[in-house]
Amino acid sequence: MAEIRLDIDGQRIAVESGATVLEAARQAHIHIPTVCAHEDLPNYGACRMCVVEIEGVRGYPTACTTPAADGMIVRTQGDKLTELRDHILEMMLSGHPSACLVCDHRAECEKHRPQVTKAGRTTRCGFCSHRPTCAIREISLEARTPRLNLPTIYSLHNLERDDPFMDRDHNLCILCGRCWRICEKIHGRPAISINYRGRKAKIGAAFESSYIESGCTFCGACIDICPTGTLTDRFARWYGRPTSAQMSVCTLCPEGCSMRQMFVDGQLVAVEMTGYRREARLCALGRFAYAQLVNAPNRLRAPVIREDGEQIPVDWPEATSAVAGKLAAYRDGSFAAVVGDLATRENRYILQKFTEQVMGGQLIVAPLNDGNGSLVSIGGQIKSGNIKAVLVTGDYLGGEELDAIEYLIVSDFLPSAAAERADAVLPAAIGSELEGTFRNAAGQVKRLGKANDAPGQARPEWRIICELARAMDAAGFDYTAVEEVTEKIAGDAPPPALDAQPRDRLSDLPARSRGHLIADAVPALESIGLPVSEKPVPDGKVDGGFAIIEKTEIVPNFHRLVIEAPAVARHAKPGQFAIVMVTPTSERVPFTLIDWNAERGTITLIVEEVGRSSREMAVLKAGDRVAHVTGPLGLPLPIENYGTVVLGGGCYGIGAIYPIARALKQAGNTVVCVLEACSHYVLYMTDQFEKVCDRVELVTKDGTAGSKGGVQEVFCSLHERGVKIDRFVAIGCTFMMKMVAEKTKELGVPLDVALNPIMVDGTGMCGACRVSISGKTKFACVDGPFFDGHEVDWDELFSRRGAYAKVEIEAMPQQSCELSAGAT
Question: 211, 191 in Cβ contact below 8 A?
Fold first, then answer.
């Protein structure tokens, strides 16, 4: 193509004819802000952040849609452009949760709380899983402090998590169109588009149908290209920005698609396409199931041998020695090995060499889509007594075969019926834990990319078998690296062709991996029709238990529950909490008592959805029952006539200070309540506080209700106005309470803080809520929850808050679910 030359910000640039101004600028490393533009998508011009000035052109055209022309003079910076972009950004932020972006304490808050909160709906950056990579946040921070003169509107869209693999929070969407445009590019006919118009416009499947019904294949491209986190991978969502990537190949079906493995601190969290091209697309298994299989919590981790009828964990030398000793009796041809047809070339070669050369036996290849039926030939020989010892590398054997085997070795990555009966279980590495090569259905040999270690003591099978062969004094197994094996089989003849078929339809996806039903490890697959093992299906109902009388989502993520619990209601005092278990197997979780009625026998809780257990509470409805409610627990706050008491409540702490305010008022105090929230749309119970307080002060991080700032700013303001404060009580996030502690200590005002945020089981058994108070160890749940805020070791407390971060992420449910109706 012909070359043209243009001037951008005084820099002379040569580009090919047909390039846009934005492409020319990027080629010259000149930054122009944009949200909707993407190098793999056609030009769109939706966000308008990329406006520029061009000599001789009226107005401010968008750089992404304006073709570059020879001799064109372009300016990307200037006061007018800055003002225009600021106005455009302001309009975006008025409909996008943005309180953190204008909060005066954002930097310090994020320093103390580097990990985002695992909330349901996103109401601010601190609750957004996409915070590390959000385009809106990046542009906002580049553009100085963004202004918010326009009304902040929170759309109150329901959080959609009723389709497999993904969560959709349309409160974050800016209608950039990236998702449906990439869907159209890759699949030809997009499964999603923009529904409705104006303020009601929303990305989704036609007629509000499910993504399954829309024909979505769940390739994940829309998630990967979304700039704001509206669409998220449910499994990878809370791990944060990937810290490394590794090219590899998916071995869950014969297609052997190339893929990019994404890691966070050495842990595989997601798989992405190698590019936004039709030929690079992945199926639902490669995109979503692969990482979950590698991270399956029930992975086999240690070698096991059977002694006196019991399976005993051992180390590798002992396991290898024991198996080698037992196999010596079966070198007469009475041995067989079973391997899947999707094994790596190296694993298969070593296993075949061992079976034939060391044991004189036979290697049986189990096809992908056939469960136990693929082993009819070996099954007959086992039953006839010809095969007495078997090494099986997956869940390929049925009960009759297992009953007839004298000596069984299982090399696998998940538990199975065979593993339970095995004389030896050898944990195997899979997926991103493997090096080597894979031959796909097209005959191509592709290289696997190892990027993380296998869990526990699991090892690649080629290494397990080589060590076993050496223990049996067999020659030819002295390989120390997989590359040596790869070189040995460089000229091998391809095995029989694999069963190649397109994976564009969900019904075409294979159900098994190494004989295991994949949906057992990846629960969301059941919703697209993949089978799971037969097991009792709970009806979700709790026999007996405690009835939920009322349930309402009062503001986004905050749920008010009135529960029938007479014993707790009779004895409740301000500041105490109750332990709730939704089901008999749920975690014990403490929730502060917001209100109670001894005559009705009810208690009221405000539950903020910030993790697995609170989500279990959030999805309940009036009429449901919870398994257990225990309380009241914790030491109540001493109620006396102190004089003037200021209570500061933030987020869940707004509800928590309500019964304290009521009791202090009844004791004759002058009560001032300060209610803090990130924005106006998450303030609640203001009417109730007006009835029990002498004064109510509202404060928001973005200034959309009351004053701008936090509880500590209101406290300082009251002090400056001459209000004599005799005592302060603060309940809320750890950061807010620390800020209040610093200010009250400086001004000599006594402070009580409730350390509920660090409780786990609330009974003192787990020890997770240890805190240092004046150098002494206390437990928040039994010694508190209230402590002198000036004596708390806040730095230690922040450190302990992050101790269980990874465990909490891994505990997040992966099944599809529906949330109750939006806030009212």
Answer: yes
